[in-house]
From TrEMBL:
Region of interest (Disordered), ranges: 175-248
Protein name in the entry: Major surface protein
Composition bias type Basic and acidic residues, residue spans: 192-202
Gene3D superfamilies attached to this UniProt entry: SRS domain
All copies of domain SRS, residue ranges: 56-170
Pfam families in alphabetical order: SAG
Record InterPro entries: SRS_dom, SRS_dom_sf, Surface_antig_SAG1
Amino acid sequence: TKEWVTGTLQQGIRITIPDEHYPATSKAFRVGCKAGKNVCLLNVYVQSRESEVIGQVAHCAYSSNVRLRPITVNPENNGVTLICGPDGKAFPDDYMNHHCTELDECKERPYSAVFPGFSSSFWTGEASGVAGATLTIPKDQFPSTAQTIYLGCTGHPDDKQVTCVVPVNIEEVAKPAGAGSNPGGGSQPDQSSEKRDGEQVNKGKPPTGGSGGATTGKQNASQNAKDKGETGGENGDSPVLRGDAKLT
């Protein structure tokens, strides 16, 4: 842009290229001066930028094959951006639906193997664009076990294929305890019944009639004992029967 060029013809012209605008492959151009029929030309060679990771962004260049340091993705930093630039393209070709499973050889696997609810809409932008392409993982789509996927770009400077690969470490998110015992999470209390000492015992819930059921049973036994006493029990004492007790 014009802002990159400063100075005057008398004092000299200076061209300054911002670091972020260095190309992914080496470039060359010519500039010069002309006076009448006389021309003076200068060949300018622009070295390619270095491949690097800055934050959650992988910038790929094509001076040589490179393996970038890993980028970690978690619910707090749930996105990764891949910038191949106009001199390169992302791989695999269908990078918005498939990723590589190995560092040195791209064995393709669908993202749905890692994120069951995956949609290509998780991707925005274009890897060959200036701003690159960004993969954003919704917080509820993180796997329950840690995973590593590989993204990359390839370029062809001087008719040679050069690759730039970045590992993406995806952290696991623990599922709620008991999820899977029942759809609502947690586990249901045991509602089975068993007999014990002649009584019906309901596990996990109170006896029919609420907590007053036991009291009612005792009142009935006491009333029966009283009735027997009134009808002439021995010495006026009537035994109260409990459980498996027998009257002899």
